[in-house]
Amino acid sequence: MGQSRFRMIDISSKDDVYREATAVGRLRLRPETAKMIREGKVEKGDPLSVAEVGAMLAAKNTSQLLPLCHPIPLTNIKTTASVGEDYVEVEASVKTTGKTGVEMEALTAATIYLLNIWDMVKKLEKDPEGQYPETWIEYVKVKEKLKG
């Protein structure tokens, strides 16, 4: 058989170390939609609460979504969000004591957080043709990572 074109990195010899990563991201929305989130008037319910649970589930399942990502025992997942004039911004922090970092888990949590909000407000964001001209996810990045 031929050599595989990809592989999971062997981390067997690495020591367990405290690791933490924080990712951020932003969902752009119509100002009217952001106002409805702030005022608790979204028909489906509270998008921030649903998004928080979705982010936790996503972080815990990152290795099932990213084929070469190691399953990591997470020790903490925390999200905080702010609703601005025309956006929702999230910060997702993930912690572990393990052999590899949690950047992918933090990025996954932040992104899924924002996708859950989009899902809950999509009715409000569609234009007459059913498109989303004022809705997009931006600035998803690792804000910080700590090791040791």
Shape: elongated
CATH topology: Alpha-Beta Plaits
CATH class: Alpha Beta
Rounded to an integer, what's the Rg over CA atoms?
18 Å
| Percent in helix | 25-40%
For the termini, the CA-CA separation is 41 Å
Instruction: Count all strands and give the number.
Output: 4
What is the number of domains? 1
Order of helices and strands: EHHHEEHE
Residues in β-strands, percent: 25-35%
Spatial strand arrangement across the major sheet? 2-3-1-4
Describe the structure.
With 148 residues, this protein is an alpha+beta fold. It has a single domain, classed as 2-Layer Sandwich (Alpha-Beta Plaits), CATH 3.30.70.640. The chain is 33% helix and 31% strand. It contains four helices and four strands, in the order E-H-H-H-E-E-H-E. It has helices at 31-38, 47-60, 62-65, 103-125, and strands at residues 17-28, 74-83, 87-98, 136-147. Strands 2-3-1-4 form a four-stranded antiparallel β-sheet. Helix 2 packs antiparallel against helix 4. The longest helix has 23 residues, at 103-125. The termini are far apart. The mean pLDDT is 96.
